[in-house]
Design a protein that fits this description.
8 strands; six-stranded mixed beta sheet; 33% helix; Lysozyme-like
């Protein structure tokens, strides 16, 4: 699935020579439309490379640039951030998981990543409930099976 580009000013150009070696999994605590609105607001100070939900894949920041997603700038420089439509009382839909697994599989191929160790939860970077109801191991296992 080709991503639909959405505009954000919330990113840093380039990665200062840092190689991509992680995918950070997040949940939106809302819908994809909520992520679109947050990232479109330049004063929010946050972004991600991709957002998934309601049968769609949105891209906000080029993989060549640093999105502001992990709450830790060095981790932002070395990672791709993926937001998932979900909330504390709503797990991602089957379509959200399928799109995520497809995207993560492609990213692991492109960057030579091991899904079991290099697809990580946001809460391994900073103290947060994120990625909440996203079943990270389901994504890791499905990506590994496809590789």
């Amino acid at each position: 699935m080709q991503p639909i580009w959405k505009t954000t000013e919330n990113y840093t150009s380039g990665r200062d020579g840092t190689a991509i070696d992680r995918i950070v999994i997040h949940y939106i605590v809302g819908t994809l439309a909520a992520a679109d609105a947050t990232f479109a607001n330049s004063s929010s100070g946050v972004s991600a490379h991709y957002g998934i939900g309601e049968g769609s894949l949105h891209q906000y920041v080029s993989e060549l640039n640093t999105a502001w997603h992990a709450g830790n700038f060095p981790m932002n420089q070395r990672s791709i951030g993926i937001e998932h439509s979900a909330s504390p009382d709503r797990a991602p839909s089957e379509s959200t998981y399928e799109i995520s697994i497809d995207l993560c599989t492609q990213l692991c191929k492109d960057y030579g990543l091991d899904p079991q160790t290099q697809i990580i939860p946001h809460n391994s970077v900073v103290a947060t409930a994120c990625p909440g109801t996203v079943n990270l191991q389901r994504i890791r296992d499905a990506v590994e099976a496809r590789l």
